[in-house]
Amino acid sequence: MNLQLTQGLSFKMHFKVLNFLKIIVIIIFIFVTSSVEASKLIFDISNSYVTLSGKKKDSDFTVYGFSDSKQTLVLKITGPRQKVILQKKKKIFGMWTWGKTGEFSYPSLNHYYTNNKTNQIDFEIKKDLYDNIKLIGKDDDNLKKDLIEKKMSIDLFKIKNNSFNTINKDVPSLFKIPIKLPLNSPAGDYFVSMSLMDGGDTFETRKIKLEVKKPGIGSFVFSFAHKFSFVYGVFSAIIAVALGVFASLVFRKR
After folding, report:
1. For 43, which of 65, 97, 99, 147 could close a Cys bridge (C-beta 3.0–4.6 Å)?
2. Which one, of 181, 169, 157, 213, lies nearest residue 63 by Cα?
């Protein structure tokens, strides 16, 4: 028992030391490259794997970076893409049914962090949000607006200004951004990117992959449904029919 406990503590300490060394290497690399070129933007993340849990109160990971540019910095985090089928109720041969009218495709999570102290660039960020939402079928800006408002109300879409923290007051170009993902974030592959924002520049720069996991059966069901959507649909239909038959038998006996 004592041996297992010692090994567990040793592993945790080893993991923290690796993260610390990684951060040191990032900072050294930043200073070496910044002496060669001006207006540099370099960043990295403290860890590439995140397990979401309600017990943890601190940040899930931290973004470390350097930039000597005077432009606004924008950090963008996107989650795995989701699809939502839009349906409309209509009457066919005297029977009401649901018909597909379109399909939404969008990142399940869209978070933006900026070093701007005002809301001056929010319009350009929201434009990026709109552009990342694909509507297959008749395009409708009102539907996109409703989707964005709904996702913002549950923190899956977010714009957070003035969120860059200075690491050292003597070197204001060095910064860090602690990131805490909402518990309702889906499991899957996320991407972290950063850009210099100035009058509508694109947000896509270098991307860093981040793997997010969630403990429990909910994460397994979500992953299975996205990787094997056809099989998941067949099983869902079988279960729905079986429950319907079971319910009819129960009520018939009563």
Report:
1. 65
2. 181
Residue 222: what residue type?
Answer: F
Characterise 160 by phi-psi region: left (phi > 0), alpha (psi -120 to 50), beta (else): beta
Fill in the amino acid letter for 239.
I
Q: What is the pLDDT of residues 203-238, one digit of tens each?
A: 666 789 999 998 765 555 555 555 555 555 556 657
Overall residue count recorded for the chain in this entry: 254
> Please, which residues have CB within 8 angstroms of residue 61's CB and are 6 or more apart in sequence?
45, 46, 47, 50, 179, 210
Q: Are residues 196 and 98 in the same domain?
A: yes
User: Whole domain around residue 246: which residue ranges?
Assistant: 219-254
Residues 103 and 197 in one domain: yes
Per-residue pLDDT tens for 244-253?
Answer: 666 666 666 5
- Residue 230 shares a structural domain with residue 138: no
Distance between CA atoms of residues 81 and 140, nearest Å: 19
CB atoms within 10 A of CB 116: 19
**Pick from 65, 73, 76: nearest CA to 33:** 65
Per DSSP, which regions of 52-187 are E strands?
61-67, 72-78, 81-92, 95-107, 110-114, 134-137, 157-160, 165-168, 171-179
In a domain, 6, yes or no: no
pTM here is 0.69
Count of the separate structural domains present in the chain: 2
| Backbone phi, psi, residue 59, to 5° | -70, 155
Residue 32 forms part of a structural domain: no
Tell me phi and psi for residue 241, to 5 degrees. Answer: -65, -45
